[in-house]
Design goal:
Radius of gyration of chain B: 23 Å
CATH topology of the largest domain in chain A: Rossmann fold
Number of strands of chain A: 17
Largest sheet of chain A: 6 strands, mixed
Strand content of chain B: under 5%
Shape of chain B: globular
Helix content of chain B: 55-70%
CATH architecture of the largest domain in chain A: 3-Layer(aba) Sandwich
Strand content of chain A: 35-45%
CATH class of the largest domain in chain A: Alpha Beta
CATH superfamily of the largest domain in chain A: P-loop containing nucleotide triphosphate hydrolases
Order of helices and strands of chain B: HEHHHHHHHHHHHH
Distance between the termini of chain B: 35 Å
Strand order of the largest sheet of chain A: 5-6-7-3-8-9
Oligomer: heterodimer
Number of helices of chain A: 7
Shape of chain A: globular
Number of domains of chain B: 2
Structural class of chain A: alpha+beta
Order of helices and strands of chain A: EEEHEEHHHEHEHEEHEEEEEEEE
Largest interface: A-B, 48 and 47 residues
Number of domains of chain A: 2
Helix content of chain A: 10-25%
Chain lengths: 396, 312
């Protein structure tokens, strides 16, 4: 069954053109005062029941417009959309709150805005308060809430909607880690019960983790559609391609440049997996002698924090490098990080000064390998030192 | 497939094979909901047509709870952090009554058909203030929280209509005061008082029409909000609030009564203070014009609703 079907959907926005001349409006009353901007161009795709679709793309690619049209906030200029099932959209949760009203009153108001019946809200009230963790402040006006409490309460209400189709727009970017985990649990639960999810995010790792399928949008068109991994790779290529072009031109006279970076398993038939070896290759071109050169490959968590770094730095400082092209290989016997998508920075330093930096220029995709819970895989051996096993369960 | 927005369990509905399979999964895992038929919705570009009235009303009925909750919250929020609170609902008509009474009994006089002027003017001020304050609140209310329009969906007319409902509450408070004045001046009501109910319904319908029309235009052109105080002030003097219909020359009355408010207010005063039946022809005319306006205004509102979020 198809839950959402878009059939050649286009959306035009009218951008107001500022008056270029000081002529008053009555001198030319019929002049067109706007210019067309097509946010969507003949977009067609389908989402099957129970599928989780991720939509990725640059800012302004039309992602949010799709979400707004799906949730009826605005309408398409042409085309047709068929939606089967009750839908709930989480676009900036908590934005419908009234600051003067208490948390409890806002649950009633917001719930009704999201289409809940009063009886339904009454029935779920305790569960919503419990989930939000706002607890004792539930009878305080929300204008006194911290922004975290605000968002938690908003998400909590939306999470209790029980929709057939859930639309998410960057909602996971907010709230503390514990609450994010809670949200992900709730999403997983919805997924298990066969809900359809449309997820829009710049957090590629989250798209990779949550979605069965992804769509890449660019300038209002669908440019790729397929398994998340392929689509994300395509997106990265698109981004990286743009960057090299502009960076290359700007820093042509820099003494050395990184030209490419790649990651692979030593056995190239394999994926990179947690707990298994990996090889990182970095190519460079030096235009002159680089004294005390240091290469770094920095891996970033999806949250943006530095996760780990591969570096040629040592206590003796760097090594001198002759001009010309070259390649550096890092051999890692064990990839210790959890499965996911890591963004990569590469840099070259000389005498402690950065001479080339490529931010977010590649991704490292770590697949499911050895079991790990938490952030890192720690290799260990274990044995029982004291205590005993029951007779009948002795292992040999 | 039938529209079932509430997701309630219905044993009479037999879902198709596919839905049955999926809902069985849901039943065992979620446990909180049973079989439900998924509503099918088709989204198309907006169009101005009479059909939008019916589909609009259908959706509005589904969101009736929101209208109720929002109206209650308008009342709650309005007098929050004000020292006098609900007294304000009574203060406005009383103050206006006092000033008009002073002007039209001391400075100049107006024939009221034997009714004390204070009572005469208060009786017309209450429906007028309901009408004018609902409209001005509704017009400003729709653009007050742009986030509501750009971040979530619900039928937008609920915002102006909730201000209307809140205005109705103020009107009833005013009516208690009016009853006090009637007792004080020993004006005894008759059963014709009950005609006030249909009169009020027509009045609310016309207020809704104007509120929907003006608030929809106001999203595009903020000129409406700027012009509104002036328009309402002038409008008040074109209808029989401070004077009676009898003061209007007979040959103009036909045009005069084309404004539904004029007929409604005159009739409201007739049934309450004189205890007579309302003038059936003017009431029918008011009702016809008011509900025709409401239908057009609603269709316009629904067609412009589609792009409100882009424009606001």
């Amino acid at each position: 069954m198809i839950d959402i079907q878009l059939d050649r959907v286009s959306k035009q926005y009218k951008l107001r053109t500022p008056g270029r001349s000081p002529k008053p409006w009555y001198s030319d009353p019929f002049r067109r005062r706007w210019s067309p901007m097509w946010a969507l161009h003949n977009v067609s795709f389908q989402v099957r029941q129970g599928e989780a679709l991720g939509i990725v793309g640059h800012n302004g690619a039309g992602k949010t417009t799709i979400l707004k049209i799906l949730s009826s906030i605005t309408t398409p200029t042409s085309g047709e959309i068929t939606v089967r099932g009750r839908m709930a959209a989480l676009v900036e949760v908590g934005s419908g709150f009234h600051p003067e009203l208490t948390g409890r009153e806002n649950i009633n108001l917001h719930g009704a805005m999201l289409g809940m019946r009063r009886s339904e809200i009454r029935q779920k009230l305790d569960s919503i308060i419990e989930f939000s963790g706002v607890g004792q402040y539930i009878d305080v006006p929300v204008k006194r809430y911290s922004s975290g409490m605000y968002v938690r309460l908003g998400f909590s209400i939306a999470a209790h909607l029980n929709p057939d189709i859930l639309l998410l727009d960057e909602v996971l970017a907010v709230g503390d880690a514990a609450f994010q985990a809670k949200c992900l649990d709730r999403l997983a639960e919805l997924r298990r019960t066969g809900r359809t999810v449309v997820f829009i995010s710049h957090d590629l790792a989250a798209v990779y983790r949550l979605c069965d399928r992804a769509i890449l949008m660019d300038h209002g068109r669908v440019v790729a559609d397929g398994p998340p991994r392929q689509v994300i790779d395509e997106y990265q290529r698109m981004t990286f391609g743009d960057d090299t072009a502009s960076l290359g031109a700007a820093e042509s006279e820099s003494p050395a440049r990184c030209t490419s970076v790649s990651f692979s398993a030593p056995d190239s038939a394999q994926d990179i997996r947690t707990g298994y070896p990996m090889v990182a290759r970095l190519s460079y071109r030096a235009n002159q002698i680089i004294p005390a050169a240091v290469f770094r490959i920095s891996l970033y968590w999806p949250s943006g924090y530095l996760c780990a770094q591969l570096t040629t730095d040592s206590s003796q400082g760097g090594f001198s490098l002759g001009p010309g092209e070259g390649r550096i290989e890092f051999h890692c016997p064990v990839v210790p990080v959890v499965p996911g998508l890591y963004r990569v920075d590469i840099s070259i330093e000389s005498n402690g000064r950065e001479i080339d930096l490529r931010q977010r220029c590649a991704t490292l995709n770590v697949g499911l390998g050895k079991f790990v819970s938490g952030d890192f895989y720690i290799e260990s051996l274990w044995k029982l030192i004291e205590g005993s096993l029951p007779e009948e369960q002795t292992f040999r | 497939m039938a529209e079932r927005p509430d997701g309630a369990v219905s044993s009479s509905v037999v879902p198709s094979g596919d839905t049955l399979a999926s809902s069985r999964v849901r039943k065992s895992e979620a446990g909180i909901e049973g079989d439900r038929v998924r509503p099918v919705r088709v989204i198309r570009p907006p169009a101005f047509s009479i059909g939008t009235i019916f589909s609009g009303v259908q959706t509005l009925v589904k969101y009736a709870d929101l209208l109720w909750i929002l109206s209650l919250f308008r009342l709650k929020v309005r007098y929050k952090q004000s020292a006098l609170g609900w007294v304000w609902a009574a203060l406005q008509p009383l103050a206006l009554m006092t000033i008009y009474t002073l002007i039209f009994t001391r400075v100049t006089t107006i024939s009221t058909g034997g009714i004390p002027y204070a009572l005469f003017v208060l009786c017309a001020l209450l429906p007028w203030l309901f009408f004018s304050s609902s409209i001005s609140n509704a017009v400003h209310g729709l653009v007050l929280y742009p986030n509501l329009l750009t971040k979530m969906y619900f039928p937008r007319e609920i915002i102006p209509l909730s201000y209307l409902a809140a205005g109705l509450a103020d009107f009833f408070i005013g009516c208690v005061i009016l009853a006090g004045f009637m007792a004080h001046y020993r004006v005894s009501p008759t059963w014709n008082l009950l005609y006030a109910i249909p009169i009020l319904m027509v009045l609310a319908g016309f207020a809704a029409a104007i509120a929907l029309l003006f608030s929809a235009i106001h999203v595009r052109f903020r000129d409406i909000g700027l012009a509104l105080p002036l328009v309402l002030q002038v409008w008040m003097f074109t209808i029989p609030v401070v004077y009676s219909l009898q003061s209007v020359p007979v040959r103009f009355r036909k045009f005069y009564l084309l404004d539904p408010i004029a007929g409604l207010i005159e009739n409201f005063r007739t049934v309450l203070l004189q205890g007579r039946r309302p003038d059936p022809s003017s009431l029918a005319l008011s009702a016809t014009i008011a509900f025709a306006c409401l239908a057009i205004a609603y269709a316009y509102f629904k067609s412009s609703e589609a792009t409100m979020a882009d424009i606001i």
